[in-house]
Amino acid sequence: MGEDQEWTINYLPDEGGRYTGKLRVSGDQVAFRSLYESSNATVVKAIFLDVTTFAAAGGHTVYRYSNDQEAVVELPTADIASVAATKKGLMKRAVITMKNDEVFTFDYGMLSVKSLVAKIASVAGV
């Protein structure tokens, strides 16, 4: 599958906000770790589920969580249903849809997301 690759990119949660961080694509997961919250509006960090809420969620898959240092999104490649390159205005985005229909959007600004989408599709087999 090749080496792990990493991009500095923005994660756009459905609940709003923008987190700038590192997205690492490896053979078994796509992992985002925030460096800082970069939206214009303050977003409550509680939109990220705490790891301990997994049991409270009835055992459903929890892909997002936070601790005091960082917000994290971990997407197992086996759970990825599709990945697509999209545009909103001039902004280029990689949109990952999980098998449970949860959607994760990563914004790369005006830079192309083709290599990122190709890498995710390759490791996820989609």
TrEMBL record:
Spell out the protein name for this chain. Answer: Uncharacterized protein
Q: Which organism is it from?
A: hydrothermal vent metagenome
